[in-house]
Amino acid sequence: MLPVDPTNKLSFNRRIMEGDLVVVYERYDSMKPVKVTENGVLQNRFGVFKHSDWIGKAFGSKVFSNKGGFVYLLAPTPELWTLVLSHRTQILYIADISFVVMYLEIVPGCVVLESGTGSGSLTTSLARAVAPNGHVFTFDFHEQRAASAREDFERTGLSSLVTVGVRDIQGEGFPDEFLGQADSVFLDLPQPWLAIPSASKVLQQDGVLCSFSPCIEQVQRSCETLKSHFTDIRTFEVLLHAYEVREGNLESWQDSDGGLHKSNKKRQRSGNGLESSKPKTIMARRNGETRGHTGYLTFARLKCTM
After folding, report:
1. Which of 119, 145, 202, 259 is the most exposed place for a label (fewest CB within 10 A)?
2. Exposure string (b/e) for 136-145, b if CB count within 10 Å is 16 or more?
3. tRNA (adenine(58)-N(1))-methyltransferase catalytic subunit TRM61 C-terminal domain: which residues (predicted)?
4. For 201, how many CA atoms within 13 A lie in the half-sphere containing its CB?
5. Are residues 45 and 175 in the same domain?
6. Model-level pTM?
7. What are 218-238's pLDDT values in tens digits?
8. Residue 207 falls within a domain, yes or no?
9. How many C-beta atoms surround the C-beta of residue 176 within 10 A?
């Protein structure tokens, strides 16, 4: 890995300024990205919100509409951007992204090569991980998709950390200028085994590769190809389960997914200090909207030839 300069630190402007991108949080399942302009207006079911009232406020502020409704103004972190970005392709979500960043051993200063860019969900997190003096070079064969991703990185303030190229990595491989330069390589391709030989050439000694594939047949063929130049080959499937915890009674909360209720009964005190005869039940169940399989993550380390 490249050495990290401790004197070079990221700094963030925590106050909203004209031209900034904010994530407007309406409720847990309703968020949208909005560019702040002096005369801009946001209208939703909670009322009318003037952008001019937002300027100068800190990210995370609660702002009110003309009707007394409110929203929160959040900074466009990679986690939130993943939830609100335009889906030009199927994207990676937080569970897979965090696993990828860790197992690719990405730290500030790293050089990361990615193919393909898609909607840029992973790219955004990679950029934050390599900041402030690293760089992500991402490639997509689709010219319009690459242009849209480039615009998104401008909006989120990551253009200095990300370079978007148009290239068919499966057919042409990575550009020769990157030979031996990359700390990590990420592949999200229909036929990743075609790009693995090129990836082995652009990685530094002991560099790490990750290939994301939705089908186990793709994983099998990729692993066979990896054996030529890589070691420590491992494949993971990340499954994330979210739980909902609330007060209630078992009859009113039917468990639709067959999971078990976990309850803890507490005695409630009445106004005169005596315990109420009706217990309060705290229940937890697995959220029925939990995402299942997204894909398989295969990691491998380049063999040392020295």
Report:
1. 259
2. bbbbbbbeeb
3. 69-301
4. 11
5. no
6. 0.79
7. 999 999 999 999 999 999 999
8. yes
9. 9
Give the max Cα distance, the chain: 80
Of 11-15, 148-152, 207-211, 284-288, the poorest mean pLDDT is in: 11-15
| Judgement on whether residues 53 and 92 belong to the same structural domain of the protein | no
Tens of pLDDT, residues 72-110? 999 988 889 888 888 887 788 889 999 999 999 999 999
Spacing of C-alpha 32 from chain mean position: 16
Q: 160 phi and psi, to 5 degrees?
A: -75, -15
**Domain co-membership, 66 together with 84:** no
Q: Is 168 labeled as ligand-binding?
A: yes
Within a domain: 6: no
The answer to whether the annotation marks 119 as part of a ligand binding site is yes
The reply, when asked if residue 140 is annotated as ligand binding, is yes
Residue 14 lies in a domain: no
Give the DSSP letter of residue 227.
T
Same domain for 190 and 92, yes or no, is yes
Q: What are phi and psi of 163, to 5 degrees?
A: -115, 125
Domain count for the chain: 3
Check the annotation: does 158 bind a ligand. Answer: no
* 99, 238 Cβ separation under 8 angstroms: yes
Helix (H, G, I), strand (E, B) or coil at 179: coil
121 is in an annotated binding site: yes
Which residue type does 56 have?
G
Which CATH number do you get for residue 177?
3.40.50.150
Count CB neighbours of 93 within 10 A.
16
207 has binding-site annotation: no
Domain that holds residue 255: 243-286
Residue 118 has pLDDT above 60, yes or no: yes
C-alpha span between 122 and 140 (Å, rounded): 13
Q: Quick one: which of 299, 265, 290 has its CA closest to 279? A: 265
Q: Is residue 115 part of a domain?
A: yes
